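Good morning C.,

I know you're traveling, so I'll keep this short. The sequence:
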Amino acid sequence: MIITFIGHSSLYNCKDLHTKIENAIIKNTTAEDYISFYCGGYGDFDNLCASICRSIKEKMPRAEIVFITPYITEAQQKKLMYLIDNKLYDSIIYPPLEKVPAKFAICKRNEWMIDQSELIIAFVKRTHGGAFKALEYARKKKKVIINLADTD
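The tokens, ready to paste straight into the viewer:
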């Protein structure tokens, strides 16, 4: 199972969000499942989800945390090596974005992540911005979505 996370880069007044994310993962998976957590690695929500996935992975030996990078520049490659060297992610995937202009890379990366996923765990409160566009894309693709902002 592939789980992708979608959320705002800045989080404010998000009471119990850590617990809600963790519960959403636990409720929708088992320790026997092979799970790939697809993380974007940009912003508060992405970083919170990656941290939660690292703690869940200790209880789920068949889980992996994957950083999906939208860029493959030399500077980005240094960041990617840091992420792997410090065991923040198990692997890195660069989707087929070579021909995508840099200003659209994150949006197209998000769409690729959604296309691959069986479950989307989101925290999208606003009706504008990249997280909202990604959530709308997931809805259009009829993905299973848990928007934790709906429970606030």
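Safe travels,
E.
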